Every structure is written in C-alpha cells, then in structure tokens.
Amino acid sequence: MRMKKNAIHYNVMVLPGIIFLALFSIVPIFYAIIAFENFKPGRGIRGSEWIGLENFTYLFQLPDSGQIFFNTIFLAVLKIIANLIIPLVFALLLNEVRQKFLRKSIQTIVYLPHFLSWVLLATIFFDVFSLDGIVNKLFGVFGIDPILFYASNKWFPAIIVGTDVWKEFGFSAIIYLAALTGINPVLYEAAEMDGASRFRQLWHVTLPGVRTTVVLLGTLALGNVMNANFDQIFNMYNPLVYQSADIIDTYVYRAGLNDLQFSLATAVGLLKSVISFILVVISYFMASKFANYRIF
Amino acid sequence: MKAKLLLTAMALSVALTACGTNSSNNGSTASDPAAGNGKNNQTNNASGNAASGEDLAYEKTAEPVTINIGFKVPDGKLTDGDTNDNNVASRYFESLTNIKVAHSWEAKGVDAFTQKVNLAIASNDLPDALVVDRNQLRKLIDNDMIEDLSDVYEKYGSKLVKDIYASTNGMALADATSDGKLYGLPNVAIDADAPSLLWIRQDWLDKLKLPAPKTMDDLEKIAKAFVEQDPDGNGKADTVGLEGDKAVVYGQKPNPNGFDSIFSSFHAFPKNWIKDANGNIVYGSTTPENKEALAKLADWYKRGLIDKQFALYKETQEPIVANKTGLFFGPWWMPYWPLADSVTNDTKAEWKAYAAPVDASGKFVTHMAPVTDRYIVVRKGYEHPEAAVKLLNVFTRYERRQDPNTEEVKKLDDYAAKTTVHIRDYYPFDLLLDYSDAVVKRYADVQKAIKGEIDPKTFDPDTKLVYDFSVQEKENPKKNMDAWKPAKAYEIGGGVLANEQMDKVYSVFYGMTRTMETKWTTLEKLENETFLKIIVGDQPISAFDDFVAQWKKLGGDQITKEVTEAVGDK
Questions:
Q1: Global ipTM
Q2: Does B462 score more than 80 pLDDT?
Q3: CA distances from B354 to A55, B15, B335, B501 (A)
C-alpha cells in the first residue's frame, strides 16, 4: 500500500491514539500472565509461583461463574437488540415529522442523556424507581402494589436495559437520521406518483434505504457482546441483585480490588477477552459479507 | 533484674530532664542540645552500657529522615495556610523526632482510604508506611511486601507503648505477628466501641406516647408505630421502621445500622468464633440461634417494620440523615456521625440510645470487638523502619497526656480549643493506643463536674474539652454542632455504656488460619448473601440449614479445626 505524500499528516494525527492504545490496551496484555500464577505483588511477576490453569479450574468450580457469564451475555444481547430497534423506530417516526423546528428540538432533547454519567443517572433512577418514587406512585394510581424494583431479580434486568436504551437511543438515532437524509427524495416522489401511501413509502423506500446501516451496526455490536457496561451496572446494582446483574466486569472489580484476588480476577478477565476476540473476528467477517464493510 | 529496672528509671529521668531543658530553651537552638543528647546516648551504648529503650525511643534521628505515608483526611478545616502535611501537629512531631512526614497520597473517608490502600497493594506501590486493616495486613504478609518490625519495635518502642500493648495480655501484638515475626504495630481499641446500641428519635417516641424499649416486643411495637402513625407529623406515610445495612451484621466493630444486637439477644454471634455449650469452638454464624434471629428479621421485613429498601442504599447513613427513620442500631459515637447531620436537617430531632433489646432473661448481651483492628506497617526495603516506631512513640505520648514538653503541649491545646481542630486528626497515623475504659471514665468525670462534685480544672485537656462542650451545649442547645457532637456522644452513648449492665461475649479467635487465606472470601460472601436474602424473603428460612451444610463443605470444617488448634496452642 502506497501513501500519498500529503497524507502523512493524517498519520501523525493518528499517532496519539496509537500511543494511547499501546499504553493502556496492548502493554497490559502481557500482564495477563498473572492469570496463570499465584500472583504476589511483592514478589512480582517473575517471582510468583507458576500454577498453570489452576485459577481457571477454580473459576469453573465457583457457583457464581456460570451466573456471571450468563448475565453478561444475556444483558448485552438484550441491550444490542433494544439499542438496534428502538433508535431505528424513533428515527423513522422523527423523520415523518414535517415541522423542521419541532424535529430539530426533539432530536436535541433526546440525545442529551448520552452526555450524562452513570454516576449521576444511577442516583436519579434510584429515586425514580424507589418505593415512593414516581413509577410506584403511577402504579398506585392504577391500584398496583408498589414494587421494589432495585431489589427484584425479575425487574432489575429490565431496568438495566431500559435505562440504557433511554440514555442512548437519541444518540444512536443520529446515525439512522443521517442514513435517512441520504435517501434520494426522487424515490419518494416516484412512489407518490405510483399512489403509495405514507406507510407504503416507509416500507418500500425508507427501510431498504437504511438496511445496510442497520446490518452494519448490528454486526459491529456483536463484538460488544461481552460488554454489558460496567459503569452502569456498578453504579446501579446492590447485593440483592447480584444474582441477575453481576457481570464479568463487576465481578472482576470486586474480586480483584475489593477482595484482592488478583490472579482469579485476571483469569476471569482474560477468559472474557478471549471470547470477545473471537466474537469480534466473527462480526468483522459478517460485516464484510452483509454490509460490505472492510477496514483491511 | 532490679538493676535493669533501676537503670531504665534513671535513663527515663535523664531523658525527661533533657526534653525539659529543650522546651525551656525554646527557639532555634533547641534542636542542638537534643541532637547532642542523642549522640551521647549512642556513645554510651557503644561503650558497653545496657541500651535503654527510652533514650532510643525519643531521641532525634541524627540525620533528617523523610517518611512517605498514605493519609486519611479528616473532616476538620485548617486555617492560616496550614495543610494536611504541614500543620501545628506535624511541625511539632517533626521538631521532636527530626522525621519529616510526607504524604504520598491522601484519601477522605474510610471507604476511599481502604480503596486507596487496596490499590497501593494491587500495584505494589506502597508508601514507606501506612495504616492497614486486618485483611490488608494478611495480604501484605502473604505477599511478602512489608518489613519484619520485631527488632525495631524491641529496640525503639517506648515504655508507654509497650505498657499499653502489655495491658492486652499480649493479644495486641500477637494479632500482628505471623510465624514469630511482628509485621505491624497494632492499635488498642477501647471497649466502648463494640456494643451496638438502639438509637431512637425520642421526640417521636414521646409524641406517640410510647414507653422506652426494653424487649424485642417493645422494639416491634415502636417500629410498627413509627411506620404507621406518622411520627414526624407531616401527614405523609414517608417514615420507615427499623433501619438496616446490607452487611446485616458487622460482627466485630459496629457501624450504623448493623443488626448485631438483635442476633445477640438470641445469643447468636455471627462472624465471631465462640464456644458452644459443649465447650467446642464454633463459628458464630453457623449456630442454630442465628436461624431464630433471621426468622424474626424476615418476619419484620415482610410486615414492613424494617425499611424495605435498607439493602439498596449506597451509604448506610442516608435514611438517618434524611430523617426517614427514627430507629437504628449503632455504637456510642453515633452523634459525631451521622446524627449531627440528622439534627442539622431537622432541629426538632432528639436522639436517645438504649441498651435494647434484651434477651429472654432480661439481660442486654453484646459481642465485643477485637482488641486491635488497624496496624501500622512499613514497606519492605524502607531504610528507616524505626521512623514509624518513633512517630508512634511521640504521638502516643502526646495523646496520653504524658508529653513532658508542657509549653509546646499547651500551645497545641490552646490551638485546638481556639480552632476546634482535633490535633489527633493530624497524627501521621490514624492509630490510637488507649486503655480500654476511656469513654466510660470520661463520661463519669464530666457528669461529676457538671454536678459540681469535682473541679473541671483538674481534667486532662481531652476531658476538659468534652466538659466545656457539654456546658456550652446545655446553655445553648444545638447552636454549635461541634459542641453538640462530643457532648451528646458522651452524655447519651457514654451514659448507656456506663450505666447499663451488659453481658459481654468475647470472640476466642480473631486471626487468620492457613485455609482461611484461600477460602474465607468465598465463605464470607456465601454467608452475607444468604443472610441478606433470608431477611428480604428471597430465600426461605430453611436456606440457613443449606448454608451451614455448604459452609462446612466449602472449607468451614477444616477452618474450624485449624481455629480450635490455634486457640488450644495459646
């Protein structure tokens, strides 16, 4: 591959990113070796005793590990699906709003939550879903008994997914809206000439127009299947819902930092990385197949 | 033997006079005679005289030494441009020891500090010395990250420090010892910190015309009334009953909202190693009495007498500060925190403490805390481990009012009185050595002084401060919260401890065994989650039996055996 002369400054621009990546993502890979050791910080990586796969066998014996792997994948898959469909539906609906000012205002308002941190939102949602919070008040109007959402393993996954979608759908919709503006208006005019209703136009013109975008985003999201969002869950969960909300990342945090079981935590993290890696490879090939998306 | 004693006494008096001369000299020349004194001592030692602990303990280091520590930032505010690592306290201790204390990092609040220490351990980046808790000490020993202090302590430890440690019958030092090596300098905790008292909004109780609680039934009635009868009178059903914490019980040193006293009233002692009726050592969380306590709590939770959301709070004091609850358990010092915030938010709040609920025979039962729970440790490879010991010597001597430099001490006392800054907050290490009856004694003294039975002028400065604050609080109730805190903590909390009969149950073992090192985290997790789930009704009461069986299988039996052996050895 040859580089044009004037393209060099683009590469310089990428440099800080690469250094950042090397420092925080590539160098730490070598430290994953402590997953195979009985790691003692005082003795260092070289001085610690080599125990091979013992941490992994222990990991599979722990009653929690099945649960955390299941929770991670379950929550992530739900989030991927919801985060694919809801922004699309929203973008389609917004696209039908003909008043430009109204459309722009709605769009601005719904993407604002994307910029709020989970630390802040967790506190707000705790009040919203608490026993005397707004949701239970609303339920009270319809004569439903108050529900302790944050303590219920039945409801908590729904809250995790719901709040995540609420936070991100406005932002994700931007991509769809961009794809929608890319559709040639002539197609709509032609459809109208043929007597197509608003719904027919949506079905035959709009949806095919954004299909590749949907497929691309969907396949790319597959690489994130092992990431169920640490920030969100760490800030929202509590011991009562560990059963349904404890994911790999939060477990690694607690085992590694709170309980100081470094090797075990690294083993869990490493296993997650390996699975994630396989999924990224799969999703890349799928993206190139269905959406003709290639980097290399 | 006699000769040695005499020698120590002589050395002591020499040291004291030397220090005395220093302070009377005052000013820039003061450091020189002291340094000379130190050199003299060294030559003395070298020439064959028996080494005297007191000289070594308090002499200045010949060369200035810097020690980097991790520091727990207190709540108080310093003025006059003073900082956490450069203030009246730090300057005074540096002038005594020639040791400069630098802060590698600072953290505010217990949780933040624990996290910081964990991070330091995880990244193998320890400051030269710092204070750690029991788990961290175990990890540090296990990881071979800290110095063996046996010799340094033996050589440089002051008589006062050694005396206080000795007063625990060797328990304190044994606690920080592993394989015969002393790895940390432990604190000595006061007895008063262990019992978990029942704190109640007395104004609510009076309003609903309820009697003071004594038994479990009384407590149940009050909780029911606090939930249903709108004690705060705002017309909304926004009050909850008994408050709790997601940890369920603290087991050793309590904090707000532990259910420890409920378990104790059933003679269950979770998280403590106790002897059962047959004299066998058992783990307190696995005895059948726990099941009764859990059944009671589960029943209360189901009926809404315990705050339905108690396990969900990030900070356990939240509902107390927000005055949503008027009923919780906590040790004597609750007025300092979180009750001061509760009263600030609602000045009508009148909190009282009770030794309740009592057991079936009418006695208040409480488990006791381990004699130590914090340790000063020194990073492996630090050149001056004796610096940590020397600092402990000087601030303990100051704390226990035995500092001979009266003029300097007076200056610090005046400063503290003027600014309400607690000097002890700025000791290099948050580690106090105290005789076990400190709180109760101070309470009794202050009460006598208020009644005019003794002259407050005879008090040591700490007691005097509590007395002054108590008088101030009596004259102007709730005007100055800094006065309210100590006044109420001693009056209410200290009062209960001093006046109520308590059955004190001591754990027979606080250390760690070999199997514990690998399996304890898992077992503790199992225990906490089972207890919590039974209370909130996620699991039936019968889950307790499954827990006991699983606990035994997952290493509990082996650990019990090891503990029995360890206790037998003593």
A1: 0.75
A2: no
A3: 49, 48, 14, 11
